[in-house]
Amino acid sequence: MVHDTIEVAAPLREVYDQWTQFEEFPSFMDGVEEVRQLDDRLCHWRTRIAGATREFDTEIVDQLPDERIAWRTVGGDVKQKGVVTFERVDDEHTRVRLAMEVEPSGVTDRAAKAMGVLESRIEGDLRRFKRFIEDRDRATGGWRGRLRPADSAGGTTPADPATPPDDAPPRSTGAGPPYSGPM
Predict the structure, then answer these.
(1) Mind listing the pLDDT tens digit for each residue in 17-73?
(2) pLDDT for 105-120, tens place per residue?
(3) Are the beta carbons of 118 and 79 closer than 8 angstroms?
(4) What is the residue-averaged pLDDT of the chain?
(5) H or E, element range at 13
(6) How many Å apart are CA 3 and CA 86, to the nearest integer?
(7) What pLDDT score was predicted for residue 118?
(8) Roughly what angle, to the nearest 10 degrees, separates helices 117-134 and 107-114?
C-alpha cells in the first residue's frame, strides 16, 4: 500500500468537488491520457506509462461527500484499489490523503514497484492537483451523491445507518465535464 498526504489552500467542498471531476484527471495526473465516466460508479481509463498504453475500468465502491472516495478496478489489465480522503483543516485549507494498492502485472511493474515509482507518481499527482485547484476560483464541477459499498457490483457491506438517504440530485458539473472518477 502506498500513500501520501497534501494540504490544499482551498475549502473542503471545493477540493472534494474538484476531485469528483474524474475527466479532469489528465490535467494533473502523469500518464493518464483519458478518463471517461460511464455512469455514476464506472469509469474507463486510458494510461500511457513508459511507452505502454493500458486501458481499464474502475468502480467507485464508496463515496461520501466531503469525506472519501474509494475505488477498485473491475476490468482491463490493471489491478488496483484505493481511497482518497478529505479533511477540513480550517475554512480555507483541506488535507487530502491518497492511498493505493497496485498489483504488479509483469517484470516492468515489479521493478517499478521496487524502485518506488508509484510513490513518486502519487506525490507528483497530488502536488499537481494542489496547483490545479489553487489556481482556480472554484471547482470545475462537482457531484455530491452518496454511493455505498453494498450497492457496488461485488459489495456486501451493509449500508451505514448513520448516513443520510440517497436523495441526491443527478450528477452535474457546472462548468466542467461530467463526473468521472479516480481510479
Answers:
(1) 999 999 999 999 999 999 999 999 999 999 988 788 999 999 999 999 999 999 999
(2) 766 666 666 566 678 8
(3) no
(4) 82
(5) helix 12-19
(6) 14
(7) 75
(8) 70
C-alpha–C-alpha distance, residues 59 and 118, integer Å? 21
pLDDT at residue 123 greater than cutoff 80: yes
Nearest to 148 by CA among 135, 133, 136, 165: 165
Quote the CA–CA distance of 88 and 70 in Å, as a whole number: 18
Overall size of the chain counted in residues: 183
In this predicted structure, what is the pLDDT of residue 163? 37
C-alpha cell at 168: 441526491
Dihedral angle of Cα 91, 95, 29, 24, to the nearest 10 degrees: -30
The SS3 of residue 131 is helix
Enter the C-alpha cell of residue 66: 466531503
What ranges in the chain are assigned the alpha helix state H? Answer: 12-19, 107-114, 117-134
Nearest to 16 by CA among 71, 102, 97: 97
